[in-house]
Amino acid sequence: MAYEIDRTEEQWRQELSPAEYHVLREAGTEPAFTGEYTDTKATGVYQCRACGTELFRSDTKFESHCGWPSFFDPADSSAVELREDRSHGMARTEVRCARCGSHLGHVFRGEGYPTPTDERYCINSISLRLVPEENSGP
Fold it and tell me: Can you give the residue ranges of the MsrB domain (predicted)?
C-alpha cells in the first residue's frame, strides 16, 4: 500500500531510534508496563511518533490495566488503518498510522470495558508522542 509519507527503510532507520524502528516499522511490541504513556493522565493529543499525525486524544484514553496505553476510539477514523494480523498463531486486528504505515498496536472488541465503543485500541507508547494541552488562564 502506498502512504502519503513514503520513506525508504534506510530513511526510517536514520530518523527513528532502534527501539522506535523495531515497533513502528517491524511491528514489534514494547514490554508491558514499561511505556511512558501507560499510566499518563495528562490532557492532550497523541500523535504518531514517526510522522506527527494526530491519532488519539486523551479524553478517549482509559485504564485497561493491560500494560499499554488504551483508547476506546481514534481521534479520526481515517487517521488509522486496520489490518488483519494472523501472526503468532492469533487472529488480531493490527492498527497502523494511515499516513505513514507505522505499526501502532492492535484493537480488540467485545471485552466488556465500560466505554462507549466496547473497543480497546492497545497502543505501544513508543509509537506515540503526547502533545500536552496548553493551560489557558492565569
Answer: 9-133
pLDDT in tens, 22-63: 999 999 999 999 999 999 999 999 999 999 999 999 999 999
Annotated domain spans of the chain: 9-130
Question: Could you tell me the three cell numbers for 111?
Answer: 471485552
For 9-130, CATH number? 2.170.150.20
Annotated catalytic residue 122: yes
Q: Are 133 and 47 in contact (CB under 8 A)?
A: no
Q: For residues 61 and 113, what is the distance between their CA atoms, to the nearest angstrom?
A: 12
**How do strand 70-71 and strand 61-62 relate by DSSP bridges?**
antiparallel
3-state secondary structure of 54: strand
Beta bridge partners of 107: 93, 121
Pairing between strand 61-62 and 92-97?
A: unpaired
- In our burial notation (b when 16+ CB lie closer than 10 A, e otherwise), range 119-129 reads bbbbbbbbbbb
Alpha helices in the chain (DSSP H): 9-15, 18-26
